Amino acid sequence: MLLKKLFNVGFADITVAERAAFGLDDLGRYPLFAPDFLDFLRQAVPTARHRELVFSIAVTASKPANPAR
User: Fold this and answer.
1) What total number of domains does the chain contain?
2) Which among 4, 12, 17, 47 would be 20 to 30 A from 69, CA to CA?
3) Residues pairing with 21 in the sheet
4) What's the pLDDT band for 67 if we cut at 50, 70, 90?
5) Which residues touch 31 (CB under 8 Å, ≥6 apart)?
6) Residue 67 within a domain
7) What is the model's pTM?
8) To 5 degrees, how large is the angle CA 37–CA 57–CA 44?
9) Is residue 54 part of a domain?
10) Cβ atoms within 10 Å, residue 64
11) Which pLDDT score is estimated for 48?
């Protein structure tokens, strides 16, 4: 879905450079996520998903100076 949106706004040569799983323990390293929220996720999300809860994606792309319309 992200790649389609990048293409729709004029980007070209779109490549996924890296895709990495983030688990609950990884999210706890960032101050964005409060400990109470992480505790809630531990209870709400099945244990099997704790190691791969979300994914980070690094994307490279170029945007032509004069995109064809």
Assistant:
1) 1
2) 17
3) 55
4) low
5) none
6) no
7) 0.57
8) 25
9) yes
10) 10
11) 94
Check if the beta carbon of residue 36 is closer than 8 Å to that of residue 62: no
Q: Is 47 contained in some domain?
A: yes
The whole domain housing 45 covers: 2-62
Question: Which pLDDT does position 1 carry in this prediction?
Answer: 76
With respect to residue 68, please indicate whether it lies within any of the assigned structural domains: no
Q: For 5-53, write each residue's pLDDT tens digit.
A: 888 888 989 888 999 998 998 988 888 888 999 999 999 999 999 999 8
Three-class SS of the chain: CHHHHHHHCCCEEEEEEEEEEECHHHHCCCCCCCHHHHHHHHHHCCHHHCCCCEEEEEEEEECCCCCCC
For the chain, the straight-line distance linking the first and the last C-alpha, in angstroms and rounded, comes to 21
CA distance 46 to 39: 13
